[in-house]
Structures are given as C-alpha cells and as structure tokens.
Design a protein that fits this description.
single chain; 264 residues; alpha+beta; 9-stranded mixed β-sheet; 31% strand
Length: 264
C-alpha cells in the first residue's frame, strides 16, 4: 500500500471516528437532558428545564448549564431553584457495565428562592411546601411510600426476565457557591443568605449507596436550618410584631398562628 492510499484511509478512518464521537455525544446529551427533566420533575414535584448540555466523550465529562425548577403556584418568582452550572466527570469504561460510575459532580452557583407570602387571606412559604422538604412522617407520605413499594414489588415479579436498568454511583457530589434568596413583600425583605459547601459520598442507585431522596432531604434540612438562624439573628419576629401594629396590616388570629409555624 503506497503512502497516498495510507493517508486517504487514515483520513477516512479519522472522519468516521469523529462522526461516531459526535453522534455518541449527541445521544448522551439527549439522554442526560431527558433524565434530568423526567426524573427531576418526578422527584421534585415541579417542572424542570435545562438550558444547555455539552458532552465530551474523549474527556469523559458533561457540562450542564442553566437548570431551572419551576416555583409553586401562587408565588411571585418564576423558579424556586436555579443552577448556573453542573460539571460531571465519569468513568468512560463504566458506560458499558451494569453500574455507571461518576467520579464527581460539582453543582456550582445554585440559588433557592425562599418566598413568604403574607396577607389577610393566607400565610405560606414555598420551601416548606416543596416536595423534597416534606417530612416522611406525614400520613400521606407513608401511604405513598407503601403504595410505591407494593407497585415496585409487582413490577419486579412481572419483569424479572426483562433487562435490568443500569445503576448509577456518584463517588463525590459537591454543592458550591449556593445561596438562599429570601423574599417577602409584606416584610420588606429581599436578602441573600450564603450556604456553606456541602459534600456527599457514594450517592446513587447502586447497592449500599445513599439515595438521591436522602441527599435532597439533607440539603433541605440544611436550608431550613439556615433560614431559621437568619430569622433569629435578624430579630425578624419583633419586626413582624412592629409591622402588625399598623391597622392596615391586620391579620386574623388563625393566620397569625400559621405565621408562627412558618417562622418557627
């Protein structure tokens, strides 16, 4: 084989390889986007949208930007959570195994929009009503879990011969530069509360890993703790008392009790 033919074959092979990598990257982008939107919406109970996903197969990395989680109905802000960037590094060879290993995920620049709505008709806040922040001890949650387990057991018996879905294992999940934006029009509050770095090891669906639901619950426990600390430090309760002395801010007694629970 002469040199010219060898060069042509090399160029053709390289072109095919690049096209394959581009196609694979496109497929991974689509799968990741659908996974975030579908699984995120199901887990969070709110609509999830993704801005851009950029996958590098050779670099074994995924960059996700502008993730938005829609706010609950009745609140002013469009989103309850916004995330600027999510950087993922994965083990390429694990894509062909039963468990996909993700070396690390770094969630950077997340903002939680905490909103307290107070008027003479209702008192509520969006975080305590947000699905991941709800306590499992609630009767409705217990029933939902039992029903889910029963359904899963039935599905496993029916599909025992079907192909098993791949498991995920995240060695390190880190949340950096996160903050809470606390807002209440009634209380004249619009303040950012910075959160400390949060790290979690061995997260995923693999055996003996921490489940995503548990991570969400720990994150929101930390969020609520920071909100309560801010309420104490800013002497918010006394500010509310002063605000309520104004006749135009009169709130019924039953709603005052509810406000006390929201700001406990």
């Amino acid at each position: 084989m002469n040199k010219k033919k060898l060069i042509i074959l090399s160029v053709v092979f390289l072109s095919i390889a690049l096209l394959f990598l581009d196609f694979l990257s496109y497929r991974v982008d689509k799968i990741v986007k659908n996974l975030i939107i579908d699984q995120g919406t199901q887990a969070l109970g709110q609509q999830v949208s993704v801005g851009k996903i950029d996958t590098s197969i050779l670099g074994s990395s995924i960059k996700i930007s502008n993730v938005e989680i829609k706010n609950l109905d009745g609140f002013k802000n469009k989103n309850i959570i916004q995330i600027k960037n999510i950087n993922v590094n994965f083990a390429f060879t694990s894509l062909f195994k039963d468990t996909i290993v993700i070396n690390d995920i770094n969630i950077d620049g997340a903002t939680l929009y905490y909103e307290v709505l107070i008027n003479n008709k209702e008192v509520k806040d969006n975080v305590s009503l947000f699905k991941p922040a709800l306590k499992n001890s609630a009767p409705s949650a217990s029933k939902e879990i039992e029903a889910s387990k029963e359904l899963e057991s039935k599905n496993q018996s029916k599909n025992q011969f079907k192909k098993k879905n791949k498991d995920f294992l995240i060695n390190l999940l880190t949340i950096n530069n996160a903050k809470i934006n606390a807002f209440s029009e009634f209380l004249d509050i619009n303040k950012d509360i910075n959160l400390n770095k949060m790290s979690f090891n061995n997260v995923g669906t693999a055996e003996k890993s921490i489940k995503f639901k548990e991570v969400l619950q720990m994150v929101f426990a930390n969020v609520l703790l920071n909100i309560n600390n801010e309420i104490v430090q800013s002497d918010l309760r006394n500010k509310i008392k002063e605000k309520l002395k104004d006749p135009k801010n009169k709130i019924p007694q039953d709603l005052l009790k509810k406000l006390g629970k929201v700001l406990k």
